[in-house]
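Quick start: load a record and inspect it. Here is Helix-turn-helix domain-containing protein:
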Amino acid sequence: MPAANGDSVSTLGVRMRKQRHRLSLTLQQASEASGVSVGYLSQVERGRATPSLGTLSQIAVALKVDVSYFIHTPRTQDSLTRADERPRFAVAGSSIEYEKIGADFPGHELSSYIMNVPPGYASEEVVHEGEEVIYILEGEIVQVVDGGEHIMRPGDSLHYLGSSPHSWSNKTDQPARVLWVGRMQYEQAMGANRIRPNGGATSSAFASSRP
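Running the structure step on this input writes:
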């Protein structure tokens, strides 16, 4: 599903490359700061790969910009979110649609999303600081944490540290919905000198942590 603001994958890559050059960073330096491999960063810059929201957030911190520099993410000030009013968005070129259920009031530390994962989707493997919790609402997800594979179905949950290499995928022919909760302070760490996402991804995206 295309991003809400209509940005293309190539546009995302162009913005990423321009900001990296603006900071006079090599791909190697950006990789060390974000924890994302040089090869993957290069693919994103060339429009040949689409990062999860969590990975994009790590890249944003490394490049000292907010994730909104790359995509439009809805901001909600009220702590109450009605089911029919939940903000939705996607990363350009990604088939995952995110539903934001957390708020952005001052001092908040937790981030939370519902991820709508299409059949056949597979995330990149990620490592970061922090921790995350995922809960399967619908469908089936295969979550890999530190080499261990977990087949997760509705009602199953998993809580793990971001320092353990993790990835996930939907290997079925049916869509899945996953609740992700974690800490994504790196989204606001625009002035950070080092990229240490205190994340809660997706992802794998629960990217970040990482949705």
